[in-house]
Design goal:
The complex is a heterodimer of chains A (279) and B (274). Chain A is of the alpha/beta class. Chain A has a domain of 160 residues: 3-Layer(aba) Sandwich (Rossmann fold), CATH 3.40.50. Helix content of chain A is 36%, strand content 24%. Chain A contains 10 helices and 10 strands. Chain A has a 6-stranded mixed sheet, with helices on both faces. In chain A, β9 and β10 form a beta hairpin. The longest helix of chain A has 18 residues. The N and C termini of chain A lie far apart (41 Å). By secondary structure, chain B is mainly α. Chain B is 80% helix and 0% strand. Chain B is built from 12 helices and no strands. The relative contact order of chain B is 0.13. Classes of the chains: A alpha/beta (279), B mainly alpha (274). Chains A and B meet through β6 and α3 of A and α1, α5 and α12 of B.
């Protein structure tokens, strides 16, 4: 049991939207018969071993981010149970929060503040020693290729790729033993993407961290993940190692199947097409 | 003791962050301060001009002081209320709300840091306005009970913090316009609390309502201490209801906020787009 970092057991999350005679009333909308219901996460079950990099692969709107939010205590599941190192995310929320951190696709910062000011805010929230945190912040930012002069300037002056690296540095700074990476490399240039991927591998090797990674990037999933769950319409449609998933699909056109072929075969859609349709 | 030390250290995260934001938004802070000073002067000049307006003899100095206390107290209470109630809307605007809510921080600790910042910020802001207004109107406060005034103001802060916590739930419930809704609460308090006129000027049916507003007691207590040099013992009649209402408002605010947070987590309202 101690070997399991994360257990998701039948997790379900539904969202409702709609109105009552044209009026939107908080708290009442879900009870209205005309409310539209969307099942974002539908009876999802899996477990992640300690020190594993576990990928969640799915198109836009497939429920990946909702699943990450449920694990991150930002949403309360309607059904099922999620536990982090044996702690229930709903009932033992504060203890779970001490073990996790999350990097979201949109680098969420106080944009007027500098990377150092944002990282110090994070360090104080996690009750880290300020002097040590400052030193570590500089080290991590340097490792991620952030220049020294940029560390003290407002984040709004940085490119999106650089901001995303700062978001990753912020998560690493608090030394989570379960790190939730929600499309951390989306929108990054190839060099930055490679930097982040290297850092993720180093974090796992050096800090015994367990990582849950959602991504659209098949190569990234193939390169980083020990196992991958393919999710479609909120449901897990396949779960295996990258090689195991590829073995599910027959060779075609004289070449070995890729994860993209697997995804197409399992869900009947292409990630690119889905992204374009929703974008 | 260790737990208390931990919570105090963590609450400092919000104090430091807010002061950093003030530094980075210094241009806005200057504009806001100038606006506040000009606004206070404009209102206080109504008192200075009352003889010319009405053509009758009035005690201009008293009227100027009456309005000055109103404008300063209201400014302070509004700043405290705003700082606390905008805690959510600010983070929603920046997109950091999920990050803060995911951190291992008790909401009470977050409120503590936010409130300490808002009281210090409000006091500094109000002190600057007081200095400018006193310079313009040659106001002599040497006979005023300033200590008593500060005591009343601090006691009143408790209730406004409680109401601010309750109001901060609105942006959680109404993702698009919740922040603007908090202005309605301020406007109601401004009307009924005797900020620029005695509450007796209101229609009779509003008098009991005015007595429910903590701002009414703050303003009356402040006027007693600054205009009539009331001693501390005679100010207890104002301080006690303020402390009691504060002790009621803060836990009530926390309970409302807790409900609001659960609702937001159930319905996905924490997300920036709502």
């Amino acid at each position: 049991m101690d070997d399991l970092a994360l257990v998701v057991d039948g997790a379900t999350k539904r969202f409702y939207s709609g109105s009552w005679k044209g009026w939107s009333i908080p708290g009442l909308v879900p009870r209205n018969g005309k409310a539209k219901m969307v099942t974002a996460v539908d009876q999802v079950s899996f477990s992640v071993r300690r020190n594993e990099i576990f990928g969640v692969l799915g198109a836009n709107g497939s429920g990946k981010s909702t699943l990450i939010r449920l694990i991150a205590t930002l949403l309360i599941p309607d059904q099922g149970r999620i536990s982090v190192f044996g702690l229930d995310v709903t009932r033992e929320e504060m203890r779970v929060k001490k073990l996790i951190n999350r990097v979201s696709v949109d680098a969420a910062f106080f944009k007027k503040l500098s990377p150092m000011e944002n990282l110090m805010y994070a360090a104080r929230l996690y009750d880290m020693d300020a002097r040590c945190a400052r030193k570590q912040a500089v080290e991590i930012l340097n490792q991620l290729g952030i220049k020294a002069e940029s560390i003290y300037n407002p984040l709004e002056n940085m490119s999106r790729g650089m901001q995303q690296k700062v978001a990753i540095a912020r998560a690493f700074l608090t030394a989570p033993i379960l790190l939730l990476l929600d499309e951390p490399t989306t929108g990054l240039d190839p060099r930055s993407r490679r930097d982040v991927q290297e850092f993720v591998l180093n974090l796992r090797a050096a800090h015994d961290a367990t990582i849950v990674l959602t991504t659209h990037d098949m190569e990234e999933a193939d390169r980083l993940c020990d196992r991958i769950a393919v999710i479609d319409n909120g449901r897990v449609v396949a779960l295996d190692t990258p090689e195991g998933l590829k073995a599910l699909v027959a060779r075609g056109n004289g070449r070995d199947p890729t994860l993209e072929d697997v995804f197409m075969d399992l869900t009947g859609k292409s990630l690119k097409e889905e992204g374009e349709r929703e974008g | 003791m260790t737990t208390l030390g931990h919570e105090l250290r963590v609450s400092y995260a919000f104090v430091e962050r807010n002061f950093n934001l003030v530094k980075r938004y210094w241009g806005w802070e200057v504009v806001w301060l100038v606006y506040s000073v000009v606004n206070a002067l404009s209102i206080t000049y109504i008192g200075a001009a009352m003889e010319r307006i009405s053509g009758a003899r009035v005690d201009t100095s008293y009227l100027v002081l009456f309005l000055m206390v109103g404008t300063l107290v209201w400014h302070y209470l509004a700043v405290v209320f705003d700082s606390v109630s905008s805690m959510i809307s600010w983070e929603r605007w920046e997109g950091t709300i999920e990050y803060t809510f995911m951190a291992p921080v008790k909401r009470l600790t977050q409120m503590l840091g936010t409130c300490v910042f808002s009281i210090v910020y409000g006091m500094l802001h109000t002190a600057v306005i007081l200095i400018v207004v006193a310079f313009f109107f040659k106001i002599d406060l040497s006979q005023a009970n300033l200590l008593g005034g500060v005591l009343v103001l601090l006691a009143g802060s408790l209730s406004f913090i409680g109401m601010g916590i309750m109001a901060s739930v609105l942006p959680l419930l109404f993702t698009e316009r919740g922040a603007q809704m908090t202005n309605v609460i301020q406007a109601m308090l401004l009307l009924i609390s005797g900020v620029y006129y005695p509450i007796q000027a209101l229609p009779g049916w509003l008098h009991p309502v005015a007595r429910l507003s903590p701002a009414t007691y703050v303003l009356e207590g402040m006027r007693q201490s600054l205009l009539h040099n009331a001693n501390l013992s005679s100010l207890w009649g104002f301080v006690l209801p303020l402390v009691l209402s504060g002790l009621l408002a803060i836990p009530l605010g926390m309970a409302v906020f807790d409900w609001g947070e659960r609702y937001a987590k159930r319905t996905g309202k924490l997300k920036r787009s709502g």
